[in-house]
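Inputs:
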Amino acid sequence: MKTQRIAEILKSGAVNTDIVVKGWVRTKRGNKNVAFIALNDGSCMANIQIVVDLAVIPEEQLKAVTTGACLRVDGKLVESPASGQGVEVQAEKIEIYGTADPETYPLQKKGHSLEFLRDIAYLRPRTNTFGAVLRIRHAMAYAIHKYFNDRGFYYLHTPLITGSDCEGAGAMFNVTTLDISNPPRTEEGKVDYSQDFFGKPCNLTVSGQLEGELGALSLGQIYTFGPTFRAEHSNTPRHLAEFWMIEPEMAFYELEDNMELAEDFLKYLIQYALDNCREDLEFMNKMWDKELIERLEFVLKNDFVRLDYTEGIEILKASGRKFEFPCEWGCDLQSEHERYLVEEHFKRPVILINYPKEIKAFYMKQNEDGKTVRAMDVLFPKIGEIIGGSEREADYGKLTARVNELGMNEQDVWWYLDTRRWGSAPHSGFGLGFERLLLFVTGMANIRDVIPFPRTPNNAEF
Ligand code: 4AD
Ligand code: MG
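Outputs:
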């Protein structure tokens, strides 16, 4: 007989039919006549109750049915007399696939701290919290593809191994097959990368944007959605060394269009979560963040503020607030500044635009004033920067001049510069940090808790 998933059974299972369920034991209780097993198979938050008549299944066999054990249960789906659940399974046969010794099973008890669960990241998806987070994570990934597909964007697979440094900020992870304890050397004593696998130094990508732009300038509208890598030693609750990023890139979009897309996209994703992940969101709201659902609904209902960086600095200076990092025109905003603007001053998301060119990447379109670029960062409550993007410099001369001004090597990005030589076009794009989105949507406070296997300094165990 076909195994049914618990989510399916609870939604539409027909009572008084034979049934097979398989899953992991959450709890077992009972008396000398009957045992109750709460079984979870990961398909949803809810467990299904298995009722075991000890006259049918001997108590001896139930001894190994402990928290964490994996079972197959054959039985009948019946209406449940207990309140709070519509149906339950009357067990006729139980097969134990895998036992879980109560003496050693780390999730024997409930209510572990998130820190403890991080140390057993390979088991934490079996908890209610991580089950919810990972189901929401899946739903968001699906919604992202749906959003773009429904609007005629193409999913472009940009490379993970690259020879260029897109953002020009932060250290990158090198990719090499050379023997690092004894690499070949040139006559000047430098590492001879011509003998390396790719014949030159290569890294894991920090962003798919540069290749994404090639896609926009041919397919019109593309998006990337893949892992990116930054060897930053920033041990914060908002940074990972390996994170996923969504990067749409659109020909013929100016900064205004880019902002509109970013706001519409974020609202769509939040609405999708509210419509499709209700049970999990309610759990997160109850357990971790009492204002979660309210905050999600609030963002949906309100227009994002659009503000010039210069005005933003004036507001911060006039705030009378003592920031850890004082700010002046020209400084890069810290998360304390971003959150002041969003949470205290405007009390809604802010899109900050026209940043000083010195603190932004080389590819951003230069404004007439010679000082600022057409950058946009979307700032969110509790998160700070959730999206970074810009209109791109489409003028070959200006872009090349900026590359040289910054002391970059033209030869490293010759192919990118070439796109401005033939059929250049105004275009824009942005990058949404997938885990930052998930922090916002799940109400979790630490980015290590919204990705199955976080990669941070000194942490790559599993
Ligand atoms: O602002 P960033 O560095 O922008 C870019 O990489 C551009 N190439 C994007 C584009 O225009 N196509 O990164 C974009 C977003 C940030 O706003 C943040 O949400 C997330 O990526 N992000 C990180 N998320 C987790 N850990 C890190 N270390 C992150 N660094 C950036
Ligand atoms: Mg940024």
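Remarks. The chain has a mean pLDDT of 96. Residues 166-167, 207, 209, 230, 232, 239-240, 243, 245, 247, 385-389, 429-431, 433, 435-436 surround 4AD (ligand 1) (CB under 6 Å).
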